[in-house]
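Subject: design request, 339 residues
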């Protein structure tokens, strides 16, 4: 990781940003004193805790842990908080709610749920990391997700510490909006390592002009790596948001090692007209999301055979007329130049 990237991550950690990732649970013996002893991934299950449930009567929950001697955030020791949760709101719930995870009172991860948006009466939700905001949508009021982010600088200190989880509703009381929240202990906790985040970013180019229904569309993407080390074990994840699109290939595309930048293409098929969306995510280490783009473009109605015939006939007539005009001009010039 470059020095400039380290400084940006420290600044972002202080702002409490986070990213959507998928982290496999650690397999290790539970710790009776809830202490993090060595670098690595320390899930709540590894620290001796069971799954945590948040309800309208208990909207805040916390666990006690012990951080090692000399614990600090950067520049040579890096701490991330990761979370696997299932959040469910009541069918009639409205407004905006937040699920927040804190380390020693410093908010280091937050997911916003907008229950007034989303398809078919569902909800919209988003996450933000050092690369920007990633928007998501759900057709229901329930979602199961994982993510992680670098802990705020103020959240890491040696000795006794706490990880807390809080569900807050800005528009309604918790009892009027929340069904349940479950924090899965095997997929939630802290990561301590010596390297910061990959300097990876993703760019996705929508079609230059609206495709028609039934077309096979090529989507071009570019993965950029600003780090001095090559980025490996990268995959591109393609998730269809609207029913007017369908995958023409696998949902996961391996990307070769990236030094500088690497571009490629994948194909989707259009099945209905109107505005269509898909979410393209950049994954590393198997499942961890490093960047994501919500791609939006319009699809036009399919052309009929009659329309195609008329268009081709019009082009043919225009071509013939153009040739006759050019020939006539040449003949006139020849007559004018002859003695």
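Subject: RE: design request

Done. Sequence follows.
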């Amino acid at each position: 990781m470059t020095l400039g990237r380290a400084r940006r991550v420290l600044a972002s950690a202080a702002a409490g940003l986070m990213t959507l990732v998928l982290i496999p649970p650690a397999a290790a013996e539970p710790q009776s004193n809830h202490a993090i002893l060595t670098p690595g991934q320390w899930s709540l299950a590894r620290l001796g805790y069971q799954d945590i449930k948040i309800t309208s009567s208990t909207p805040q929950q916390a666990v006690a842990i012990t951080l090692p001697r000399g614990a600090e955030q950067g520049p040579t020791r890096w701490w991330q908080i990761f979370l696997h949760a299932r959040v469910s709101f009541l069918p009639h719930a409205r407004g905006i709610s937040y699920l927040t995870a804190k380390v020693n009172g410093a908010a280091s991860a937050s997911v916003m749920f907008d229950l007034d948006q989303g398809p078919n009466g569902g909800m919209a939700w988003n996450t933000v990391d050092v690369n920007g905001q990633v928007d998501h949508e759900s057709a229901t009021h329930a979602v199961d997700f994982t993510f992680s982010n670098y802990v705020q600088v103020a959240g890491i200190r040696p000795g006794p510490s706490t990880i807390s989880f809080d569900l807050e509703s800005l528009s309604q009381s918790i009892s009027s909006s929340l069904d349940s929240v479950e924090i899965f202990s095997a997929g939630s906790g802290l990561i301590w390592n010596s390297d910061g985040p990959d300097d990876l970013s993703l760019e996705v180019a929508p079609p230059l002009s609206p495709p028609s229904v039934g077309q096979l569309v090529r989507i071009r993407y570019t993965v950029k790596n600003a780090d001095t080390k090559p980025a490996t074990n990268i995959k591109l994840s393609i998730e269809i948001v609207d029913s007017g699109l369908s995958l023409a290939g696998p949902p996961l595309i391996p990307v070769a090692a990236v030094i500088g930048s690497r571009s490629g293409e994948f194909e989707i098929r259009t099945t209905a007209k109107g505005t269509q969306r898909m979410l393209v995510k950049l994954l590393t280490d198997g499942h961890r999301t490093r960047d994501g783009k919500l791609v939006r473009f319009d699809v036009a109605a399919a052309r009929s055979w009659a329309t195609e015939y008329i268009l081709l006939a019009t082009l043919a007539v225009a071509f013939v007329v153009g040739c006759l005009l050019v020939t006539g001009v040449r003949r006139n010039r020849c007559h004018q130049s002859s003695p």
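The chain has three helices and 21 strands.
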